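Input:
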Amino acid sequence: MGYAELASVSRGFARMRSLKQFLQRQLHFIVIGGFLSILLIACQPLAQSQAPDASPPPETSSETVDQTEAVGTLELPPLPYAFDALEPYIDAETMELHHDRHHAAYVNNYNEAITDYPDLQSQGVEALLRNLDVIPEDVRITIRNNGGGHVNHSMFWQIMSPEGGGEPQGQLAEQINQTFGSFADFQTAFEEAGANQFGSGWVWLVSNNEGNLQITTTLNQDNPIMQGAFPIMGNDVWEHAYYLSYRNRRAEYLDAWWNVVNWEEVGRRYEQAVQG
Amino acid sequence: MAFTQAPLPFDAGALEPSGMSAKTFEFHYGKHHAAYINKLNDLVAGTELADKSLEEVIKTSYKEGKTAIFNNAAQAWNHDFFWKCLKASGGGKPSGDLAAKIEKDFGSYDKFAEEFKNAAATQFGSGWAWLVSDNGTLKVTKTANAENPLVMDQTPLLTLDVWEHAYYLDFQNRRPDFIKNFLENLVNWDFVASNLASA
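Output:
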C-alpha cells in the first residue's frame, strides 16, 4: 500500500530536519578533522586537504531520507491556508485551536513517547499504526492515540480547501456512484455515519481490504490503516472540531463540511489507493 | 412512563463566578443532557425496559449489549449525577468522615487530587473521571464515553465530565485548567459525603 499524502508531508519536514542533522554531523567532523589536521600537519601535509568539505555532497538525499524516516520524530505540518480561510463553514478560532493546540499536542506527545525507543524511531508513524503489536505496552496506547492524531489531522488539513466544495470528478466520482448509487446518497450515508459515531472519533471513506469503497467510523484517533484499509477522506467528529460554531449540532457541521472538501486532493488519494 | 430530566439543582448562571458559564449549561444541560433522555425514551418506547428504573435500564442494556440504549441511559444518569456534584463556590478540601476516608485510602487529599487530575486528563477522547467506593475502598477511575461505575459493581461518589462539550466553551482545549477549577471551585463535597454515607 502506498504512502498517504500526509506521509509525504511529514517526510518533507523530516528531510529538512535531516539536512540539519547532516550539517551538525559535518560540523563535528570539521572540528575533529581540523584538530587532527593541526596534529598531523607537520608530518602529513595532505591531511588538511582531506578534511571534509562543509557543503553536503550532492547525492546524499535518497540515503539521507531513508535515515530520516528512521529518526521517526514528527513535526507539525503548517496549515496550508489561513485560519480564517474556511469561514463561514469552519471558524478561524476553531482552526487555530485545532491545528496549533490539538494537533500540536499529538505531535509533542508522540515525540515524547518514542524518545526512549530507538527501535520505534527506526519506523515511521504509519508503520507503527499498522502494527501496534510490536510497540512496547507502556507506550502503545500513547503512540496509537497521538500517532493516530497526527496522521488523521495531517490528512484533514490537506483534504480541505477554501476553494473546496462541489463534487468529485473522474474515476472517484464513477466509483462513488457505483458503490453508493449517487453522490447525494454517498453524502447522506457519510453524514449519518458521522452523526452516529458516539463520542470522539472520525468518519471515513476508505478503500477497504477488497479494494472497494466503504464508509467506516473509528473511535478517538484510530485510523483505518490500523485495519488495513486506505483512508481516502475523513471528517473529524470530535467536538473540538465544531463545538465553537455548531455546539451540539453535529449534523449541521457534517452538512456544512462538504463546502470545504478539496475533491482534487481526495481524488489524488483515491488514485493512490487504487495504485496500491 | 417516560424518563424525565430533573431540574438543575442550581440556577444555570449560579456557577459562572466559579468557572462554569451559563452558556455551557444552556447547551450541556439544555441540549446534550436533554437529547440523551429524549433518545432514551424513543429507544425504549414499547419495550419492557420502558417501565424499569434508569439504573436497571443501564445495567440490563450493558449486560445485553444494547449499545444505543446503554449509551443514552448511562449519559442520562451520568449528567444528573454530575450536576449534583457541582455547587457555587464549592471545591477545596472535604471535611469529616469523607476527609478521613480519603486520607486513609489515598494517603492524603493531595494524593487523591493528583490521582483524580491525572485520570481526568488522561481519559483520551470523551469520558468521565470518578471517585468510587469499590468494596469499601475509595478509588479513582476513568471511563470512556457513557460507561460508568454502576456497571462495574462500584458505587460512584463523585464525577467529572471530560467530554469536550463540558468545557470547550469555557476552557477550549485546556482540559487541565477545567479539571483544576473543578476541584478548587466547584465540587459539592456535601453530596459526595452523602454518597459515601449511603455506600
